[in-house]
Amino acid sequence: MSRILAVLAVLGILSSCKEKDPPPPPPRVKKVVRVSHVDTRWIELDDGSRYGMGENLYNRLVSRLKANDHFVVVVDEPWNKEGVASATARQTLELQSSDRLKFDFAPFVVADFRASVEELTFTHGSRGAKRFAGFRRDYRTPWNDGTFDGSNNEYPSRSTDLSRSWFGGAFEPLPQDGFDTISGVDAGEGGEFNLIIANIHYRRDRFVATGSLDTELRFLVDEEVRRNAIDVGGTGFLFALGVGYKALSVEFGIARRTALSKVFDKSADRLVDEIQEQMKAAKFRTRVERNGEHGIVLNAGRREGIQVGDQFEVRSGGGATKLRVTEAFQIGALAEVVEGPSAVREGDIVTIVDEPVEKTIASVQRRSISVDLPEFSDPDGGALVGSKDSVVLPYLLWRWSQYDQDIDPDFVPAPPENDFAKAQSQWNLRLVDLAEAWRLAPGRGSGVKVALIDSGVDYNHVNLGAAFSRSYAGVDFISMDRRPFDDNSHGTALAGLVAARGVGKDPVGIAPGTTLLSYRAFNPWGETTSAALHASAERAIRDGARILLLGWDTRSPSKALSSLVDLAARENVLLVTAAGDQGQDIDQGARFPANFSQQPHVITVPSVDESGNLSRASGRQANYGERTVDIAAPGDRLPVLAPRSTYLTRNGSDLAAAHVAGVAALLLGQNPALPAAELKSRILQGAANSANLEGKVAGARLLSASGALR
Residue 519: enclosing H or E segment and its boundaries? Predict the structure, then answer.
C-alpha cells in the first residue's frame, strides 16, 4: 500500500510539474500592412521645454512590425503611389535574389493603418498647487494644439526671476497681504511647494501624464474600417534638492523635463504594443498579377512566407478555384489550377486555404492602458531617503481647503444692508454717481454675465457668493478643473467692485445684480500661457458672457491677445482693460491689451483718486495717453474683497476697469440688445469732464454711471 501511495505521490508531483501547452506558433504567412506617417504633436511646459509624440511613435511601430513574424510593412518606399518599384528598389531586388524570375511589383497591401495624436497632458502638484500643460480633446487653442507652427506660448515662465511676471505688478503680493495671500510654503516655479531647512530646499510633486491616440485600421479588400481610441496614462513623483531657491528651481525643472520625456517614451512603447494587437485582425490576401506565358503569377512570395505547395482559393461568379504554388520567389510566386474553373484573371483576389485564426481585438470606442513610473529626482542624485511630506502635509491640507475651494452648494446669501447709503458714502461710488444710476437701472445688472479672466475669484465669499451660480463658477485653465478659486486676491478684488452685494457693513459693487463667471488664467505669481488666456475668452463667450474684464497689462505684444480681441469683436463682446500703473504715456510705449482701445469694442481705463487726479499711491502711478486711454475711474486706496471672506485695501487701474465693467453691466441690464460698440459709446458719451485729466485721458473723461444710463 505504501508503495502505491509513493507512486501516486510521484505521479502527482510529475503532473503538477507538467509543462503547460506551448503558445501557438506564429503564422507562417505574413500580412502586408501599410503604416502612414504619424504627425508629431508637441506638449510644451511653462518654461518652454517640449516633448513631441508622432514621428517617434511611427518609427517605433515600423521597427517593431518589421521585426515581427506577422507582417510585411509598407511605408510608401521604395514603391511609388502606382506600385512601381524605384530604380533603387530594382537594384536591391536583383542583388538580394538569385531567383529564376524577378518581379518588381509592389506588395499587395491588405490593411492600411493611420493614427493621430489627439491629447498630450502633463499635470503635477495637487489642488491649489496643481499645474497643467498640454492639450486635450476638449481644450485646444492655436497656442496649445500641439503643432507649434510659430504660435507657441508667448509667456514662458521666468524661472530665474519669479519675483516679476510678464504682467508687471498687477499680481504682486501687497505688504498687508501677509503670508497667506499666495499658495505654497515658499513661492516656487509653477506653484510647487517647498520645504526649507537651513537653506536646503526640497520639493516633491506627484505628476500625471496622459495621451490619447485615434487609430484607423482599414481592411482594403474586405472594405471594413475599424476605428479606435487608445488612452495611455502614467503617474510618478518629481522631487529635487537644491541649496537656495534658484538652485532648487533649476534642479526641479530638470527633473520635470526628465519625467516628461520618460513617461511619454514609455507610453509610446505601450501604444505600439496595443497597435500591433489591433493590426493582427488583418486577414492574409494576395492578388493575381499575371496569367500568361509563365502561368499564374501571384503577388505574394517568400517575402510573405509563401512556400511551394501552399494552396489558395479564388472565388468568382463561376464558383471557387483552387490554386497550388509551384515555385516561390523572393517577390511573387507561380501557381497552377488544381481544382475548379480555370478562368483565373489578372486582378483576382486570392485567399490562402486554412489560414490560422488569430485572436484579435475587435473595434471598440476606447481602450485605456496605464504606465507606472518611479520617482524622478534631479540628475545629480539629489534624492532624499524617505519623504518629508509629513512635515508640510498639515499646512498643505489647510492651504488646499482655503485656497482651492469647491463651490459651496449650500451657500445662503445674506441680504444687502443700506446699499443706497453705501452708494452715497463710499467715495468711489459717489464720484461716479451710482445712487442715481441705480434709480435709472433698478435691476442693477440683473441677467447680465460678466467674466473675469484673472487669478480666480472667491465664489464662496459672504459678500460675493450670490453673484455666482451654485453649480458652475467657471474654469481654472492653470489647473484644468472647475475650481477657479483665487489664491492671489487680485481677481476677488475686481469681482467685488463689480458685483459685491453689500452685506452688513461690507462695501457694495457697481452692479450687484450681475452674474459673475471666473476663468483662472494666472497662477499666484501672475504667470500664464497664451493658451490659458485665449481659452478663457473662448469659454467665457461660450458661457454667455457679454463683458470680459481684463484687469492686467503687459508690455509684450501677443498673437494670443490679438486673437482674443478679434474673437470678442466677432462675438459682439465688450472688453474692459486696465491702462496699467507704470506712470507711462502709453501713446508712446504700448501696453497690452490696453492699446487695442482704438477698436470699437475695447475700452481702456486708468485710475484716479478722490480728487479726480490720476492715481499715485504705493509705488503705483496710473498710465495715461490722450489717444489710447478712453475714460478714467476710481482706483485709489479702495477697500476691496479678498479670498476667504476677508478684505484688503488696493490701488490701481485694474480697480478702475472693474468700475467701468460694472457700469456696462447696468447698461446691458436695461437694454440686453446693445452691441459692444454701442456700450462703449454710451459710457464715453455719458462721462463727466475733469480738468485734472486734460492731456492725459481722451476728452478728459471721468466715468459717470448715471450719465451713461441717461
Answer: strand 515-520
